[in-house]
């Protein structure tokens, strides 16, 4: 697997995770893990972090030279 395809796949995965967290915030879905409610601000932080990682993955995929 080339660096370009790896970065592209990573960018897509991070983008999907960011979209999932964004949908949780937009629709106000509550999330509980082992009787501990996860606050909405945690999803907002996840949207920012995962969005940045997705951007970096796509950016790196576009800058990588194509496999010869």
Backbone shape? elongated
SSE arrangement, N to C: HEEH
Share of residues in strands: 5-15%
Radius of gyration: 15 Å
According to DSSP, the number of beta strands is: 2
Average of per-residue pLDDT values? 92
* Number of helices in the DSSP assignment: 2
Terminal-residue CA separation? 12 Å
* Alpha-beta content class: mainly alpha
Biggest β-sheet description: 2 strands, antiparallel
Give the proportion of residues in helices: over 70%
Description:
- The protein is mostly helical and 68 residues long.
- The protein has a domain at 1-35.
- Helix content is 72%, strand content 6%.
- The chain contains two helices and two strands; from the N terminus they run αββα.
- It has a two-stranded antiparallel sheet.
- The longest helix has 25 residues, at 3-27.
- The two termini are 12 Å apart.
What is this entry, summarized?
This protein has helices at 3-27, 40-63, and strands spanning 32-33, 36-37. With 68 residues, it is mainly alpha-helical. The two termini are 12 Å apart.
Properties at a glance:
6% strand, two-stranded antiparallel ribbon, mainly alpha, 68 residues
Give a topology summary.
Layout: H1 3-27, E1 32-33, E2 36-37, H2 40-63
Antiparallel strand pairs: 1-2
Helix pairs in contact: 1-2
């Amino acid at each position: 697997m080339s660096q370009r395809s790896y970065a592209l796949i990573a960018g897509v995965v991070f983008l999907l995770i960011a979209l999932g967290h964004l949908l949780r915030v937009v629709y106000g879905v509550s999330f509980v893990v082992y009787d501990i409610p996860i606050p909405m601000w945690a999803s907002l932080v996840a949207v920012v972090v995962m969005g940045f990682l997705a951007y970096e993955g796509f950016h790196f995929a576009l800058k990588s030279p194509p496999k010869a």
